[in-house]
Design brief:
CATH class: Alpha Beta
Number of domains: 1
Strand content: 15-25%
Strand order of the largest sheet: 3-2-1-6-4-7-5
CATH architecture: 3-Layer(aba) Sandwich
CATH topology: Alpha/beta knot
Order of helices and strands: HEHEHEHEEEHEH
Radius of gyration: 15 Å
Length: 160
Amino acid sequence: MIQYADMQKDHLHICLFQPEIPQNTGNIARLAAATGCRLHLILPLGFNTEEKQLRRPGLDYWPYLDLEIHDSFEDFCEVVNPKNMAFFSAKATKSYQLMTPEVDVLIFGRETSGLPVPLREHYAQQLYKIPIFHPKVRSLNLANCVALTVYHQLHVKGIT
């Protein structure tokens, strides 16, 4: 079994680009704490970090969360290697299952509008999707997407 200290060597980075729904971010924070991932939030946020709707889904795990908040995407890129990033969009053509073990930064857009077009265009080769099989369903819940891709990538990296 992988121990928490071992996770820190190979941990993933989860990045939420301007998240809007506090409950999603709270759930993702709890997931990040449980998996030893670092959570990055890029401003502006659609909520206050002291809101009950954010805190409640994270339960009493907030002290275990490795969290960084960045003023901009550019500031975030100063901390991580852009070559190891994977961006997620319903508009992508490549399946998340094609991520290589080198990917250790998972980036997700806003709940209502996703990633901005300039980011999708600039990082087109690093853009992935989670398949949706019903033509009337436009998107999946952000927290579910993050959970699915985090555990997939931990498996790909041989951590699970």
